[in-house]
Each structure stands twice: as C-alpha cells, then as structure tokens.
Amino acid sequence: MIAAIALIGAVSVLLDVWRRRFMDALLATVATAALALLAMQLTMPGESGTTLAIDARTPPASLDGVRSLTLKGDGLRAAEWQDLPARPLAWSAPTSATLRLEFPRQLALGRLFALTVRRGGEAPARLQLLAENGQVLAETRGAGDLTVSWLPPLAETLVLKARLLGDKDTLLAEGPVPVVVSETRPLAVRGRFSAPSFDVRVLNDLLTGSRALVDWQVTLGKTVTRSESARDKFDKPDLLVVDARWFERAAAPARAALLEQVTGGASLLVLGATANDAGVWSRSVQLPLRAQPTDKLTGGPLPLPVAPLTPATRVAGAWLGQDNGLWARQWGKGRIGWLGAADWHRLAITEPRALALWWQGVFDAVRVERAEEVQWLAPREMPLPGQRLEVCALGVRGKLRFPELGQTLDWQRRTDRVDASCVAVYPRAPGWLRMETQGTKPASGQVYIHAPGDWPLWQAAERRDATARYAARTPVPASATQRTLPEWPFAALFALAMLALWWRERR
Questions:
Q1: Which end of the chain is more exposed for a tag (fewer CB within 10 A), N or C?
Q2: In angstroms, rounded to a whole number, what is the distance separating the alpha carbons of residues 367 and 262?
Q3: pTM of the shown model
Q4: Where are the alpha helices (DSSP H) in 265-371?
C-alpha cells in the first residue's frame, strides 16, 4: 500500500514539474507524504497511557488508555483477570500464610472421601473432618500437608466441615466442605487366579464391601476351583483381575482373548507377586521384568514388600511406574496395570482405612471407571455469590436450566476444555445451586456456592495463583513504552493539500 501511494505521488509530481507547475508539484509532494505517513501508523519512544493502581474490591471493567498496572495484596480472581487485556503488572506476592484444599466435589457411594489441606510451614497441626451435626468423622495430625479420609455410608448431599487446629488447639482455619455422594452402578469385576492367597482374599473382601459385582474364581488344585458368582449377572466387566501365575499358565488363546477385552476398553490389573516367567510378560505385553532384592519396599505412604519380579526403572518402555508399586500402560482403548507389591493382607486389620485408600489409588491409576451419561466438572476456583461461575460438563448438548435463578442458557464449547461444554452464570446467594440439562436424556446436578467469608486463606491462595498467571501472560514491558503518533494531523495535512490542488485547478 505504501509503495502504491509513493508510485502514484511520484508520477503526479513528475507531471507537474514537466508542465512547469512547481507549486502544484510541491502540493502533490506534501499530499503524498501525508498520506504515506498516515498509512504507516508511526510509533515513537515514550509513554502511552497511564499506570492504574488496581483495587481488588472494585476491579476495573476496562483498561482503555492504561499502559501498565500496579497491585497490592492477594490480587483478583481468575474470572476477573480473564475479562482484562494483558498489561505489564507490578506486583509482589504477599508472604503471609495460605492454604489450599483438595477434595472431590462428587463421589460415588463405596469410594473413600479424602480431604487434603496443603499449607506452608512445618508447624504441627491437627485436621478434623466433621459431620453436619458436629460429630468428628476423621482426624489426623502432623506437620506439612495433612489428609483425612472417610467412607460415606449413604448416597446424599452433604456440607461437611473441616477444622485446622494449631498449637494448644488454636483455630487456624475452618469452613464448609461440600460433597455429593451419588448412587452409581456397582463396579463389575471378574477375577481369575491360579494361586490362593491371603492377598486375593482381602482384595475380594474390599471389593465386596464397596458394593462391587464380583465374579471370582480361584484354582485350588489341578481339578478343583473355588468360585464366587456375582449377585447380578454382567456380560462386560469394568475391571479384570488376574494373578501373574494364572496368566503364565493360561493357553495362548486365553491370553489373546483377555487382551482383546482390554483392547475394547476394559481395565486389566495383574497381581505380580506370583510372577515366575519374565519372558512371557516381555513377549505378550512388552513388560521388562528384573529380579528384585527380598527386602525391598515400595514407596509412598504405605510401604509394602516388592514382588520378586518387577521392572527395574520407573519408566520401562511404554510402562510408567508409581510410588505404590504399580506400573501401567495404555492398551488399545483400555489399560493394563502391573502391581509389583505383595502382603497387603497384613494391613487389613491394623490399617484398614489406609489400605482401602491405597487400593483406590491403584484403581484410579488403572483408570477403572464407570461411564456416566453426563459428567459434571469441578469448578476451577471457589464459587462465590455475585462472581461469575463457569459450569462445565461432558456428554451434554442443548440447554442448561438453573431453577433458582430462573435462567436457561445454551451450552457452548470452550477451546481450553477438551470435549466439554460450558455456561457462565452469576449465583445470587450461598448454598446449593441446582442445574438441569435439557434434551432426550435429562440429567441434574448441583454446585455449592460458598459464602464470601468461607476459607479466607484458601481464597487468598487462589487469588495469588490467578494473579501470577496473569502476570506471566502480559507483554514485555518494553513494548508498552512505544507511543503511536496521532493520525489526525496527517489526515488534515493531506486534505488541505488536496483542497489547494483542487482550488488551483479550478482557478
């Protein structure tokens, strides 16, 4: 564009010079230069805009004319930062204490509820989980991060309370812990074992105690087996459990059929304590096994004896290991887990809760799950009244209705939420906010809206995290010192030159 303007202007100037119209040539030169400078949008070093000091109580709605930002305190929420364009931010994170809570907002009946409080410092503290009537459900003490677990007995909507106590039982923090315990389809498990053991018996008891449908078969001898049929028949199991000896002794067609089920989407867990033939595992599932010392223990919060044969490294080809002695890999649409730990039955009496939580982590790593029609995603930050809340779900389409708000919104896809649809809503009051999807298969859900005074230390941590993310995405400060020259003087000069040329031609 600049070249075209220069070419046309040069031709006009040369024609005026050839005709000895030197004043017209001068005016054409001025008009060409003004138009070219107008199109170039020149910038010069200097300040462009002002520096705005943000007040977290009244965040700005626009940053027009603002060059940079200054901020004191914990900062803004993520939803507030998302509404603002990127600007250089001068901010230092406060050094006061904070804490962060991690817990499932929705839980299937039969699974352990675990609440983790992450806090700075190593001062000893006591964490309590209380029921709605004030009864202590679980308690732990120690330094650093603290975790309590509890097994819900019923499917219901609960607002539990967590309390963090310091030295001499001084109250450090407390607040509500909302959770929805839902009744879901029981887990369908099929187990095949060639060696009876206490470990297998304890695992059976754990699964049965969690309402799972268990189809269990243990070989006691060459012609004797002990079977336990599921209370309800099922054709497609969610989880296949075998011990290593059964797999090694199985015929090739039986192994192929087992792996074919995994390829179709089932999860397979192999109890590796009875493994004896490393070559079988290397050829069938590409698992490299090595002999291990007899006194070696697994890592994590529940140390257990390591199986005689396990991978020697955490990363073993396509297999990825964890501290709990489990190696797992993807296999088609399903997943295979190799459990290189043994003798967990010794903890069934002394540490039943810890053992159940350990098994829950094993199942989660193997991705044992029951597919639901609609899956509600947890909010990314604490929902508060009057603040924008992003509600997202999987497997939904059409509209979402909020009865308490009298609003019906269209689901929208988000680039930062893979396969999920979202809506944005502004809750009006604390408490449970109900949601109802519309379509051929309606589903309902609910999200808890916290009061503005709930968990101030957790809110402070979320604000600091969101502010740090905003500061990381701002442009480099040098770009903010470039000032764009105003365009109106060049436009006015061009117009005056063209009017002068027109006047001289008409004269």
A1: C
A2: 12
A3: 0.68
A4: 278-285, 347-350, 352-365
